[in-house]
Amino acid sequence: MAEFAAAASTPRPLKIITGADSFGCNLKDALVSHLRSLNIDVEDLGNSSYYSIAAEVGRRVSAANSASPSSPSPQIRGLVACGTGVGVSIFANKFPGVFASTCLSTAEAINTRSINNCNVLAVSGMSTSPESAIEILDAWLNTPFKAPCPASNFGPWSEEISSFFDNSLEEMPKIGKETANESKEETLTPCSLCCLVKNRKLDPIDIIPGGSMKIVRESPTSAIVSFKAGSVEPAHHHTFGHDLVVMKGSKRVWNLSKKTKYDLGVGDYLFTPAGDVHRVKYFEDTEFFIKWEGQWDIFFDEDLEVAKSAIEKEAEDGFEWIK
């Protein structure tokens, strides 16, 4: 459209994280295809309830942009869809530094990028056709922060408003983050497992890049394990089953033997039976305590590149998501 064609030179995001519920999945899939045709990297989380999928997209966008929350051109953005586009916007917005907006027109998409530095676009699977949604998405992608927009009658913002917008970039990401930190300080109690790992040096796991481990008991084996954000454990199994508790960060576990997958965050517990083949991806720097029922060992069932390829095609894996 002519109104935002001049903004097409704005830097586009390097990656967009997407997700939808059953009412928005078809529209989301059409937009994912369009994004990929533009050579934009897409991490499609698939479909789930509108609140859980939107929260997952919001959490990842928040974490990805935490190092530069005031950037006018966020490199990692989100795209969510449900029946109305409203529900997913509500739950994506529960994370610091996430500015999600429901857009039913290109004018709304241009306005929210210009005024709010919107980094998560929410669309309606029931009210918006794929053709209209692509126009909305393109407008959102091509509009820089503080650009002329319908709200400014497509003229430049005044110096006073422009200065207000600049200040908002610094102030908006703090909202929610300060409250969350205060709440943590009020409720935080000493954790025995965290005390166990404190001041212990973990040794690199040479066979899995990004991992390190400190065995605290040999048999049955107990250990503190750490993985860097983005690390992947290829599918593998153990002679003995194991229990784990996440102490820091977040991860996803695919149990290939049972065709189930689990998202684990701080405080979450998971038992994996002996012999079950499982694959893991780490979304943040993550630490967990793990205890096997016997001596630790590991047998790989795929290599790292195969694992990464399978994770990229997660939306097609047919696994049951266990909440």
Automatic annotation (TrEMBL):
Any one GO molecular function term: isomerase activity
Cupin type-2 domain: residues covered: 224-281
Highest taxon of source: Eukaryota
GO biological-process terms attached to the record: carbohydrate metabolic process
Entries under Pfam families matching the protein: Cupin_2, LacAB_rpiB
PANTHER family assigned: DNA DAMAGE-REPAIR_TOLERATION PROTEIN DRT102 (PTHR30345:SF0), RIBOSE-5-PHOSPHATE ISOMERASE B (PTHR30345)
Name by which UniProt lists this protein: Cupin type-2 domain-containing protein
Naturally occurring in which organism (per UniProt): Manihot esculenta
Lineage of the species this protein comes from: Eukaryota, Viridiplantae, Streptophyta, Embryophyta, Tracheophyta
